[in-house]
Design brief:
With about 300 residues, this protein is an alpha+beta fold. It has four helices and ten strands. The model is unreliable at about 1-15 and about 25-55 (pLDDT under 50).
Length: about 300
């Protein structure tokens, strides 16, 4: 009997134990996550009151957030990679360009070398007085009236005379001297040609200190080149061109008529005097007035004095 009681006690304990196990299994079936839904090796969590439906929803949301995060990271990563690639390309390109520019051969500095200055030969100093003897008037000097550029004289001597107020331009100038008279005096010569002007060769050179003296034929009846000289007035200009091309301009300050004879002879003593002492001057002389057939000359002499400007 005692054994039967013990067996029954054991059997009751066993039944009680089996019933407890069944009850526990039923509770787990209602509240726990199914065994097949857990990840391999993961421990099952048995939280009181957690329903299976809520767990699935929460897991799906978590997976969606993970996917969205991965998707967002994927897009941002691609954009970032593109920007980074563009920056790298830009940096490489800039470096290449800078390298090319730096490697370009530099333009050689052009050093202008001035050609050696050739020293011009010093021009010989021109004389202030005529050092030469009288040069005779060239034959056929009238030719140079039409061909003035062909007329040549020494560089320091007068070549042409121009008097715009008298209608004269680049009239050739020749050299004249004097003729001794029986009374011991000297008479100023006139050019052989009535178409040119004579410069008294021992008077001052034009442009120099002193007075340059010139004489030419005039008068209303003939073809003397100075027949128009009476037209000039004080203030009119006279230009002398030299053999080297230099020009000197004189301004008329005196215009004087003297009758032939004692009056004109007396005035001849002043023709080498400047109207203003110390100022270079020019004196022109010609015949004018009434023709005297017996003497073959005119009854007056015209004296024109001018100062160098």
């Amino acid at each position: 009997m005692a054994k039967k009681k013990q067996n029954r006690g054991k059997q009751g304990k066993k039944n009680i134990s089996e019933g407890a196990q069944k009850a526990n299994k039923a509770a787990l079936a209602k509240s726990a996550v199914p065994v097949g839904s857990e990840k391999k090796g993961a421990k099952s969590q048995n939280k009181p009151g957690l329903k299976l439906f809520g767990v699935k929803k929460e897991q799906e949301r978590g997976r969606a957030r993970v996917k969205m995060t991965k998707k967002g990271l994927s897009k941002r990563g691609i954009i970032g990679a593109i920007i980074l690639a563009l920056l790298v390309v830009a940096a490489i390109t800039t470096g290449v360009v800078i390298g090319i520019v730096n490697n370009q051969p530099k333009d050689e500095e052009i050093v202008e070398v001035e050609p050696p200055v050739e020293e011009e030969p010093e021009e010989p100093e021109l004389p202030t007085e005529n050092p030469d003897p009288l040069v005779e008037e060239p034959t056929g000097v009238e030719y140079y009236l039409e061909h003035p550029d062909e007329y040549k004289v020494a560089a320091y001597k007068p070549r042409f005379i121009s008097i715009p107020a008298a209608g004269l331009s680049r009239i050739p100038v020749t050299e004249i001297g004097t003729t001794m008279l029986s009374n011991g005096g000297a008479q100023l010569d006139s050019p052989a040609s009535p178409r040119v002007v004579g410069w008294y060769y021992i008077s001052s050179l034009p442009g120099q200190a002193g007075t340059a003296l010139m004489n030419a034929h005039g008068g209303d009846l003939g073809i003397g080149i100075f027949k128009t000289l009476p037209r000039v007035n004080n203030g009119d200009k006279i230009t002398i061109e030299m053999g080297d091309g230099r020009t000197f301009t004189y301004r008329i300050v005196e215009k004087t008529y003297k009758y032939l004879g004692a009056e004109s002879d007396a005035y001849m003593g002043t023709v080498l005097d400047s109207p203003v002492p110390g100022t270079p001057s020019l004196t022109l002389i010609t015949c004018t007035g009434t023709w005297l057939p017996a003497q073959q000359t005119y009854d007056q002499r015209l004296f024109v004095k001018a100062l160098l400007e």
